[in-house]
Amino acid sequence: MKLNESITGRTRLLGLLGNPVEHSVSPLLHNTVSTLLGIDAVYIPLKVEKDKLGDMVEGLKAGNFTGFNVTIPFKEDILKYVDNITDEVRLVGCANTIRNSGGVLFASNTDADGFCRAFEEETGSGFLGKNVVILGAGGTARSLAAKVASEGACRLHIINRTISRAKDIALMIGTNYGLICETEEFVHKMSLEKIIKGSDIIINTTSAGLYPEIEESPLDENIHFDSRQILYDVIYNPVKTKLLKQAESFGCRTANGLGMLFYQGILAYETWMEMKIPDNILRELYVEFSNYLFK
Ligand code: NDP
């Protein structure tokens, strides 16, 4: 028999608050990072009911957790229980990373920075001076729209089924970044074709095409792309959505959301531990992580 010495009274505590949390790959990512870096920490899933969120946060503070992630459905509600938020969280209205500094909770959102880092690495492009189209107007669209605007995009369109949600984001972008953000609905095919044709970068943030609905796509099958365009789909399951395959068939540069998932987690870890993880470790980890997910 070998005694398990991996967790002691000195081990730093991290976790994931959400519901459901059973299928999350975050424990795999964060616990592997701790092992690779030789950091004495453990990351555990913490499933919580909606009416117990406040109690849970108090418990994590009392238990001296170093930090935690927040996922569906608490990314907005968590803001009621924290002490400080970043400007970005104030604008987008949700957080995914909480750092506990001596009982004071700091909330940030690493989704957009994770997306941006993955986008630049995988496509070799940034957003400065680009004409960008975002498909969808949910929580992810809101944070990516703010990021794309802050990175200097020259034009932004938000296309959504429910136009009021797209207009909400457009208002936030116009007010805070001085960028005119236009909106459209998926049903207006002619106008949609024109918007897509004039764009440099198209980002899908809708859940159309997400497993198990893999035959769905937010755009019509007959839509045309141009090989100079980049299509980024935040979905990573399946690895190639119908939309990504369609863009690939026109020779576009494409990427799925795995890099975003990876980097939002890495940035959260760096926030809690107040450190930078070396690039060589990240490269090695990314290969293992993607092999594991798609084995
Ligand atoms: P939300 O529920 O906030 O938003 C969903 C969006 O998808 C809405 O704009 C909704 O439109 C649209 N939508 C849903 N079904 C369809 C459809 N059949 N046709 C057209 N539009 C549709 O979700 P999130 O923003 O939190 O997440 C969106 C996607 O991003 C999910 O697939 C999620 O898995 C992925 N994601 C990936 C991450 C990563 O790290 N790679 C991180 C976070 C999210 P409407 O407003 O009309 O309802």
Identify the notable features of this structure and list them briefly.
295 residues; alpha/beta; six-stranded mixed sheet; six-stranded parallel sheet; 10 helices; 12 strands; 39% helix; globular; binds NADPH dihydro-nicotinamide-adenine-dinucleotide phosphate
Explain briefly what this protein structure is:
With 295 residues, this protein is α/β, with parallel strands linked by helices. The chain contains 10 helices and 12 strands. The radius of gyration is 20 Å and the shape is globular.
Any overview of this molecule?
By secondary structure, the protein is an alpha/beta fold. It has ten helices and twelve strands. The chain has helices at 26-37, 53-62, 87-92, 111-123, 139-150, 163-177, 189-197, 242-249, 258-273, 279-293, and strands spanning 12-18, 41-47, 67-70, 84-85, 97-101, 104-108, 131-135, 155-159, 181-184, 201-204, 230-233, 253-255. The strands form two sheets. The chain has a six-stranded mixed β-sheet. It has a six-stranded parallel β-sheet with strand order 9-8-7-10-11-12, with helices on both faces. Helix 4 crosses helix 5 (139-150) and helix 9 crosses helix 10. The protein is globular, with a radius of gyration of 20 Å. It starts with 11 loop residues before the first strand and ends with a helix. The mean pLDDT is 96. The structure holds NADPH dihydro-nicotinamide-adenine-dinucleotide phosphate. NADPH dihydro-nicotinamide-adenine-dinucleotide phosphate is lined by residues 111, 136-141, 160-162, 165, 186, 205-208, 210, 216, 218, 234-236, 257, 260-261, 264.
